[in-house]
Design brief:
mainly alpha
Length: 256
Amino acid sequence: MTRFSELLGTDFDGEPTTDIEDVLYGAFDEPAHRDRVPGLVELMNAPAAPEVERFLACVALTTWGEAAGYEAVLRAAADPEATPWYDFSIDRKFSVDSTFAQLADAVAERDLAEEKGTEALRVEAARALVRLADSQYFEDKLGELFDNATLLALLDDIKEVVGRGVRFLATDEKRRFDLPTQLVDLASGVATVDGALGVELAMSVLNAGIYTRTLNHAVPIVHRAKGPEARQFGEYLMTVGDEDVQRQVREILNQA
């Protein structure tokens, strides 16, 4: 049995598993996961280990609220393309690196961070990832990912990265992924804790260009923002969206 198989290919009953999630999330109810932490740290930092094993070790440590995992995420965010596992996992839709999306999932888990006293470090890791939202791909995760407390801690960072992304959209350069939609996803997340700001951020993106996919991702803001700004934003989407967007917005406004 390889070291990787011992650490992440064996569940906490000692049985082999091909589903790493059995191990990742089984740890929440199994204090014995701590026994695997030193080995995972060693694996994550081993230059000779396969990049996929190093990456999954980082994901596990981060999901389990370990400082070593968050510190690795901070290093990765500081110089994304220099990360050992960068580009090992490629998104099928845009053919770009998807490792930061998976790291964001891991950072979003907070139960063990609170238990282990690493919550402040977790928030810093989340901050570092959010600040990459104008340059790295996060799949469609950023609108649903973080809890309200984390979002409130990151509002200034989100405002900054959305502003930077909007300025990029005004240039002739292009990202290899759907940047407008990713920025609107962030605005949608913000709308759960600050409706007016969520609408403001989304409008700044839509003012730079209107795309069907982006408008569809903007629809949840109408529900989340509440208040007069939500209705105004919904009415705006009704004027620029296609029939499907209009239908979705009409349903939300009628329920309100």
